[in-house]
Design a protein that fits this description.
With 315 residues, the chain is α/β, with parallel strands linked by helices. It contains seven helices and 13 strands. The longest helix is centred in the N-terminal third of the chain and has 15 residues, at 70-84. The model has no long low-confidence stretch (mean pLDDT 95). It binds aspartic acid (ASP).
Length: 315
Amino acid sequence: MSDQKIVFLGTGGTIAGTAANALDHTGLTGYTAAQIGVHDLLASLPDWQEGAERYVVEQVAQLDSKDMGFDVWVKLALRVAHHLAQDDVQGIVITHGTDTLEETAYFLQALLAPSKPVVLTCAMRPANALVPDGPQNLLDALAVASSIGARGVTVVCAGAIYGAEEVQKVHPYRLNAFSAGDAGPIGFVEQGRLRLLRDWPRGKALPLLVGLADAAWPRVEIVMSYAGADGTVVRALLKSGVQGLVVVATGNGTVHQDLESALLMVMQHGVKVVRATRCAEGRLLPGVNDALPAAPGLTPVKARIALILALMQAA
Ligand code: ASP
């Protein structure tokens, strides 16, 4: 355990949400995400005051993460990068809604590839639920962020630690709502101690941070292959100025022939196209004769972020 500073960045989510009824976990009677400030969430943790001088707390945003957008990502990435650059900062905890948590985690890992721990955490129940899950998730995330040797962007939920590249929300209301598929979690937090199963996320930062605040974000959309899929949407997207398309392919990257024709056509117009699979597990294995490029190992939403960043680098 390091005694250096830990930075908490709040962005909202159900962990900061409130419900009119303490038994409402799913919004049946209407709970609202992003109501309580991150300072107040942390102040309610046991023994918080004892270590308070070690903690830096900032509210970067306050939103339901279904509404996450590039503006918040820019603000968050810049604050994360700023704090990571401080010698006396050991790690960062980010509170975030569960809906797009895997996208923010992947974005931060792909952009920053931090050598210190950046830990996103969340809750499936609002803060004022009869038995909220947020406080334990926060304590577990603090344990990971404080751990010497921890690095990269991870997600901590329900006692498990997941890597940004593999993590995915897989359940709409279960407390343990995340999975890393067949990669499995990086490890677990057990009574404040880490039990690691494999190495932390590693990578190389992209040279996009300088100028990110003013950068133009390319328009990249997601289309899906399914029975009866054709090229109508793809042709409409070309007309509307789309710059990149992720096609959510069947099985090991196969695409309906009518949709594929339209995708090949838009590629001739300079639109970048990549395939991801709609299979919940495993990874797409590209073949030598594939007509369309693939994004192996990435879910469609993460393939979209990878393509956005690639287009930004190429600009
Ligand atoms: N809609 C919420 C959010 O993502 C769900 C959650 O946090 O669990 O912000």
